[in-house]
Design a protein that fits this description.
Blueprint (H helix, E strand, L loop, with lengths): L2 H12 L7 H37 L1
Amino acid sequence: MNLSTHIRNARAELTKVIFPTKGQVKQAYIAVIIVVSVIAAFLALVDLLMSSVMSAILG
């Protein structure tokens, strides 16, 4: 397979790609921010709980 065939095939495949709209990107961005925030808050709560338990045990 030569280079021109490869480029032609690549262009043909790129025409099949469906790129997200601006609204879809914004919606996905907001969803990611919310999920990351919830997980970070959960981990902070677990860390606080574990450190207080360890402080009580080690006294």
